Amino acid sequence: MRLSRPVYESLPFAYVGLGWLAMLVSYLNAGSSNAVVAFCIGLIAQVAGLTIYLHRQDCRSLRSQYPCER
């Protein structure tokens, strides 16, 4: 599946925002089993967002070092 550039570029920020939201829900519902699930989802979403962001940054730096062959 191919995403448009603006959507693809905003995905890391959406994942990190979703992660912060899930962690906030976890904090507000402290003491329940749902809090643990929400915290895990938030942590996974933040790691995914950071991974995508760093991968895109690496691809940009590699693309600038080599000529474009389209």
Describe this structure in words.
This protein is an all-alpha fold. Helices cover 81% and strands 0% of the residues. The protein is built from 2 helices and no strands. The chain has helices at residues 5-28, 33-65. Helix 1 packs antiparallel against helix 2 (33-65). The longest helix has 33 residues, at 33-65. The protein is elongated, with a radius of gyration of 16 Å. The model has no long low-confidence stretch (mean pLDDT 88).
Q: How would you concisely characterize the structure shown here?
A:
With 70 residues, the protein is mainly alpha-helical.
What is the topological layout?
Layout: H1 5-28, H2 33-65
Helix pairs in contact: 1-2
Characteristic key phrases:
mainly alpha, 2 helices, 70 residues
Name the helix and strand elements from N-terminus to C-terminus, one letter apiece.
HH
Main beta sheet strand tally, sense and closure: none
What percent of residues adopt helix (DSSP H or I)?
over 70%
Proportion in β-strands = under 5%
Radius of gyration: 16 Å
Alpha-beta classification: mainly alpha
Distance between the termini: 19 Å
Helix tally equals 2
**Backbone shape:** elongated
Counted beta strands: 0
The poorly predicted ranges are none
